[in-house]
Amino acid sequence: MSEGLAAEIVAAEGELKGPAPDAWFTRLDGESARLEEALEWSLEHDHEQGLRVGGAVWPYWLARGQLDSGRKWLARLLEVSEWGERTEGRAKALYGAGTLAFIQSDRDASLRLHTESLAIARELQDQKLEADALIGLARVSVLDSDALVMEQHAQASLKAALAAGDQQRVATALHHVVEAIRRQGRYQEALPLYDESLLAQRALGNERGIALELHNMGNVARLTGDTATAEKRLRESLELATRLKSTHVIGYCLLGLAHIAGERGEWPRAARLLGASTAAFEKSARAIDPDYVADRDKTTAAAEAALGADTFATETAAGRSSDLEAASALLT
Asked: Distance between CA 193 and CA 64 in Å, rounded?
């Protein structure tokens, strides 16, 4: 029955949000109708359970690129409960909704949702929920291009996660701390923290987190002029992200490798990589991080100038049409 699936999802929240959610994601691929029935049942019969279902299942919607659908469901669940319910379930659903809004660069919605989630977390004196909401606000600061405020929120999240003794949240907060430091151009300070963050992801067995940090380490290596390390890290990340079908990480890796190709004057390859990167972001339904836009536009303009408009268009089209799961073929 639908309510049975709802209860299973709530019980499996740790798996859905953990380092190895793929078994649950695969199951939900085949049970989309039952999931919708479970959500409808919860809307009518058990608001708190519905909020907990939404708060547990949003990573699935994110992984499958179902952002619009996920946001609509969470909005319905939150609307039904919006008068007076200050519960753990509502805080979790707000965090999920705020995260999906952030992914789509909906800054105002993300700020509103995470702000309410933080208020509830503090009312409940729940440090895990507080750590989550503070990370949500750190992400909003990304959209504001305010790395200093991002660092402040991330450090506060790290403090709450450490107090709660939650290693997964500690790893998430540490990732955002070092990213905030990197965005301020404090590269030498960031490098050892990336090593620490990578170790934290490895300890959790979080392959998606490992792929992301390998990319970040490659990106910083490129920014500091260490092209050999940059290419090594980006290729390692791309290989892992391709196996995991993590399309947004694939997009960032291809973009980083496009920059390196451009720096070497390998403009046809740079254009193909730019096209493939764009296709990866489109497939993921995620907006590119604003922090990466200026570099992308600079390499794009340089490639078009070097190749001419027609050749550039041909090469980028070839990259866009490539199979993302065989993206490494573009590197030869």
From this structure: 30
Residue 244 in this model has a pLDDT that exceeds 60: yes
Mean pLDDT, all residues of the chain:
93
- Distances from the Cα of 199 to the Cαs of 17, 135, 224, 250, 273, in angstroms? 19, 20, 22, 21, 29
Q: What is the DSSP string of 98-161?
A: HHHHHHTT-HHHHHHHHHHHHHHHHHHT-HHHHHHHHHHHHHHHHHTT-HHHHHHHHHHHHHHH
As a whole number of angstroms, the distance between CA 50 and CA 74 comes to 9
Give the C-alpha separation, 231 to 253, whole Å: 9
Instruction: Tell me which of 149-153, 201-205, 327-331 is least confident.
Output: 327-331
| pLDDT, tens only, 30-56 | 998 999 999 998 888 888 999 999 999
DSSP three-state, residue 164: helix
- Which of 129, 156, 153, 130 shows the shortest CA–CA distance to 141? 153
Q: Could you give the CA distance from residue 79 to residue 276 in angstroms, rounded to a whole number?
A: 39
The token pair at 92 is 């979790």
Residues 6+ apart with CB under 8 A from 120: 86, 87, 88, 90, 91, 94, 129
320: its two tokens: 């866009």
161 close to 131: Cβ distance less than 8 angstroms? yes
Largest CA distance in the chain: 62
State percent of the chain over pLDDT 90.
84
Contact between 16 and 9 under an 8 Å Cβ cutoff? The reply is yes
CA atoms of 96 and 90, how far apart (whole Å) = 10
Amino acid at 19: P
Residue 126 backbone zone (phi > 0: left; psi -120 to 50: alpha; other: beta): beta
Q: Is the Cβ–Cβ distance between 110 and 98 less than 8 Å?
A: yes
Please report how many Cα atoms fall inside a 13 Å half-sphere around the Cα of residue 227, on the Cβ side: 8
User: pTM, whole model, 2 decimals?
Assistant: 0.88
CA distance 155 to 161: 10
